[in-house]
Each structure stands twice: as C-alpha cells, then as structure tokens.
C-alpha cells in the first residue's frame, strides 16, 4: 500500500506542481505525519522533492524532473503486472480496479518500458485463490483496517482467551489467503492471525508509530525467524497414477517431483511439518499407488493404518481381512 501511495504522491505533484502536506493527506486519506515520512522516503530514494515555507508554500518536484520510468527493466515490468491482487482488494472492502490502474500507468511511461511491461502482462497472470476452497471470512478485518490507517489503539480478544489486550496496530499483511496483523503490545512486536481476532474495538486514542518501522522489512525478518523455528520432516515417496497429480495439491514447504520410470513410478520428496502431517498427506495420496520410502517410522505407521482399515472394512463386510 505504501508503494502505491508514494507513486500517487509523485503523480499528484507532477500534475499540480505544488501541494501542501495537508492537501496530500486529505487526498490520500492519511495523516500529515505520514505524508512527511513519505516525503523523506521519496527523497531517500532519489526523487527530487523539496518544500517551500510560507503562505504559498508546499511540496514540489524540481522543474527538470520527469517521471518517465525509462529505466524499467524486464524484471521490474514483470513485478508491475503480476502484483495485482483483486482478492486482497475485496477483503479490504474496496472495489477491484482490475487492469485499469496498470493500463493507465503503462500509457504514461516511455515506449520502451511500456513494451516490456505489456509483453509481460500478456504472458504472466497470477491467481492467488486456492482451488476448491471458499473464500475465508475475517469479520475483524474492517475494524483493524480502520485502526491501522488511523494510527489508533485497538482493544481485542485473541484466540480462545477471555481477556482483552490493547495493541498499537502497525500494519496488515496478506500471505496466501490469510490476513495477519502486525502490532505493538507494549514495546514488543507481535503477529496475530486476523481470523482468530474477536471483539475488536477501535479506541479514540492515537499512538505514535515507530519512526524506524517498515512493514515489509519487518515481515520478511519475522518470516525467516518463524520458518527456521518450524519442525521439518522430509518424506520420500514413490507414486504412480493419480497420486502423482495429487502430490501437487499437498501443502508442503518444499517438494521435488521427478520423472516417471518405465513402470510409471515417480520419486517424490516432500518437506512437511511433522509425521502427523505426513500421515494425513499419505491418506490424501491414496492406497496402492503410494510407497513410503522414508522415514521408516512413518512407513510403519502407514502399514498399521492400512491394516486397521482393511480389518474394519472386512468385518463390516462379513469376511476376514487379508493377512
């Protein structure tokens, strides 16, 4: 969101020539303090913005500056067109603008850069919605969004706790189809899954956002620490038939799927959370099209489950299970 706002500021200054921090804050629905921080960020990125004091003053771009994006690389063009997230817009209660903003931006840039971006747009499309799953509902999201944009404290319950906590909401992150709240609880940075947030009250009390906090950087660092703390179970399988296709549906941290041998068997390696998760995956993949190569303990559990399944169904059918 901040990147979009920075671009909007540059385009507004280009069209108006000059604008006060208050006017920009009203146009972009943020605080003047946020505009001041954005101007510092633009200046630090090499965008030549400057302020003029006095009654007729405000923020401006130097006269010689033209934002033509002439140095847009192929990678940057690709990132421009694959970053569209209509589902995210809907979650935030906003109309999906579709390709309108992208097309407007492409029309404004230099021809060479426009050609690169259009080339990428015609060849890559990103759909982040999962197959066969209903969209998640996060009732707390609108209130949290309001508090995040207003820099106001919130009071809420989390998970199964009956007590409430007061947080300074710093930002919202959408990872996959799940929303997370990044907030300060006292002086500690915390992350909360929005689906587990209940009874949100947006207070009238404003808070001072940490000047050195950057949401994207914080999330990257937190994600690395979180992932490194996860238990890991490496599962090696041999699959054939429909089980190979189902292996692509498995939620795995890593997966390696080889080529079929002459008999149709495929070597597959999955990195999963733990053996309970792995057992669930084996059930999903199916029966005689799955061979557990390792770990040994997982294979033994799979054998016990298969025998118990066969015995239960044989008894129900009135005949003995195979040995």
Q: In total, how many beta strands?
A: 12
Mean pLDDT: 77
Strand content: 15-25%
End-to-end C-alpha gap: 62 Å
The CATH topology assignment of the largest domain is: SH3 type barrels
- Spatial shape: elongated
CATH architecture of the largest domain: Roll
Query: What is the N-to-C order of secondary-structure elements (H for helix, E for strand)?
Result: HEHHEEHHHHHEEEEEHEHEEHEH
CATH class value of the largest domain? Mainly Beta
Low-confidence parts:
none
Domain HTH deoR-type: 2-60
Keywords: DNA-binding, Transcription, Transcription regulation
InterPro entries: CBASS_pafABC_assoc_protein (IPR051534), DeoR_HTH (IPR001034), HTH_11 (IPR013196), PafC-like (IPR028349), WCX_dom (IPR057727), WH-like_DNA-bd_sf (IPR036388), WH_DNA-bd_sf (IPR036390), WYL_dom (IPR026881)
GO molecular function, one term: DNA binding
